[in-house]
């Protein structure tokens, strides 16, 4: 990281960077404390649309990481903001949980099965065949198709679970209509996060554990990036990609000194 510009704002992924399921990754709480001590604005980003920021704050606090609710930005919030910009106070048929439905309610959307403007697909641990069938029929009748994120699987203690990307592929196969994915790696989510904290791409760093979502979305949004090897992408896999992060480190603990050095 030889860029002479100081770092004014930080963006970081959550799963694989700060936590594994319910457990904090060593160095995570120290990293957040260093950011707060520096006075720099930051956001924790997640493609998970299941939980509201309040829920996520409580889960992180239980793991020993104290992050204000206002500093958490989810794909559900980014999706709601996108829909509010595109078609204010519209209607949607939603497959998802409280994180997504709450975000849409708060921007004034009506959730309905009757001739909705959009079908919005988010993440849930209990995908319903009946709900998926309804979504397919509504899209076939003309509803626009939006999905919160393209992740094909999500983590669980028992192993990977099918996630939004996999269910979106099923619906696309049935309808011939591909969704617009709002979450990472769409740089739209990065730009909405920057706008939220009044950040600028030239003075912001993105931290993530996945080359194919976190790092590429940071790159396409013009940010410097740090890949931590505590999550999805392993060290030997980095060279397979045609792009590189600005820096590769073992874990978030190695980023703590950078907060001071780059500020």
TrEMBL record:
It holds the Pfam family Hydrolase_like. InterPro entries: HAD-like_sf, HAD-SF_hydro_IIA, HAD_sf. It comes from the Bacteria. Belongs to the HAD-like hydrolase superfamily. This is NagD protein.
